[in-house]
TrEMBL record:
Domain named Phosphatidic acid phosphatase type 2/haloperoxidase: residues: 59-175
Keyword Cytoplasm: no
Lineage: Bacteria, Pseudomonadati, Bacteroidota, Flavobacteriia, Flavobacteriales
Transmembrane segments: 25-48, 55-74, 106-127, 134-154, 160-177
Gene source species: Zunongwangia profunda (strain DSM 18752 / CCTCC AB 206139 / SM-A87) (Wangia profunda)
Keyword entries, A-Z: Membrane, Transmembrane, Transmembrane helix
Stated name of the protein: PAP2 superfamily membrane protein
Length: 188
């Protein structure tokens, strides 16, 4: 386990130090959850346009449940494992580029990675028949958001990978539950 943690630290320092002050503003913006509002608004528009209001309202409830689940489960893991973030880890901070203005206490696993991958899988699965390639764009967006956390110095790559795995799992499970519910309501 210690070798894995050491590898995670080395990979973090490598990826984090690829950054440049020239691009810091962009990665800060990508990591900012409020910057995704135009994307969410566009996806919401597509949802209503392609599926109608009943389907969309129920889907919005599932999205709220999904975001709550991914965020809260990440907090449970952070409190359980108490793994310091790189921006608080002695022996790492002096070699890293810490770009983030704020740095939480614990980082395992990344709620940003979990939430964005969950939304990408959930909505990508919903739109798979109507807009088949959309899932790939959403996954690329999720990967950029996840990497931004390493770039800013607030998560190790392992935090991101585990967050993405859990997000993918939550996104798919909530998609199945949403489809089951819509079938029961005869909206599919």
């Amino acid at each position: 386990m210690e070798e894995l943690i050491e590898l995670d630290h080395k990979l973090f320092l490598y990826l984090n130090n690829l950054g440049s002050a020239t691009w810091d503003w962009m990665w800060i913006a990508i990591s900012n959850k409020w910057m995704a509002i135009p994307l969410y608004a566009f996806l919401l528009f597509l949802l209503f346009k392609k599926f109608g209001w009943k389907y969309s309202v129920i889907t919005m409830i599932f999205i709220a449940l999904l975001i709550t689940c991914t965020d809260q489960m990440a907090n449970v893991f952070k409190d359980f494992f108490m793994r310091p973030r790189p921006c608080r880890q002695e022996g790492v901070t002096q070699f890293a580029r810490i770009v983030a203005e704020r740095c939480g206490k614990y980082g395992f696993y990344s709620a940003h990675a979990s939430s964005t991958f969950a939304v990408a899988i959930f909505l990508g699965s919903i739109f798979k028949k109507k807009i088949p390639g959309l899932i790939w764009y959403l996954l690329i967006w999720a990967a950029f958001v996840a990497y931004s956390r390493v770039y800013l110095g607030v998560h190790y790559p392992g935090d991101i990978i585990v967050g993405a795995i859990f997000g993918t799992l939550y996104g798919y499970l909530l998609y199945l539950l949403q489809q089951f519910t819509l079938n029961k309501l005869k909206l599919v």
